[in-house]
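sanity check both lines:
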Amino acid sequence: MTERAKVGLFITCLADMFRPEIGFAAVKLLEDAGCDVDVPVQSCCGQPAYNGGDAKDAAALAKKTIAAFETFEYVVVPSGSCAGTIKVHYPKMLKDDAAWSARAEALAAKTHELFSFLVNVRGVKSVSAGFPATACYHDSCSSLREMGVSAEPRALLATVRGLSLKDFADTQICCGFGGFFSVKYPEVSARMADDKIADAKLRGAQLIVGGDLGCLLHLAGRLARKGEKIAVRHAAEVLAGVTTPPIGEDKS
């Protein structure tokens, strides 16, 4: 790793609205990995519209994202679900649009989930952060199934001083968020989150970490409702040494 990489950071709506610390952490990790990072003016990736069946608005948002990011050498996203939307679904959305199909394919080819980019593209093997805690890592469905990311965040977290990292009993099981799934089936969604929480408690976890803020907000919400004391953080925050209060806790 010698040359600096030109990276466009897609910050995601949830991070921008609820947890900007994730964006700052991602910038630090990318800069430490020899990247020049820019955060262009951006909007939603279109995932909620696409998943809700609104193909027209999803395609319009996809075109805005392509136009904003296509000049960068790499596009990096601290979210498997948003990265999966750009990399997997944009080419499908725009395959019949002669003016945008090739542009969608080109953007998809250079879009990466944050931890995968750090490990597989920039060759990062360790971080300098310390975080004394026992933690369980939650794999989001999109990171696993669309982006193929699993080993990379674990490899980096294993180098955090004082962090004891454990897996849930079944790393393939959804936390229950699933976007509109949690709205359509709230009882099932809550039970799935409760099962994850019970598993984390069984393993003595003081912390749940993951790579998708939607999942983490869902789990933090259930923990708060149940009065549980397990903290929740995006893995980028732990890797970058962010010390602000965990997700869902008052920052004042």
Q: What stands out?
A: The chain has 13 helices and eight strands. The CA atoms of residues 9 and 55 lie 25 Å apart.
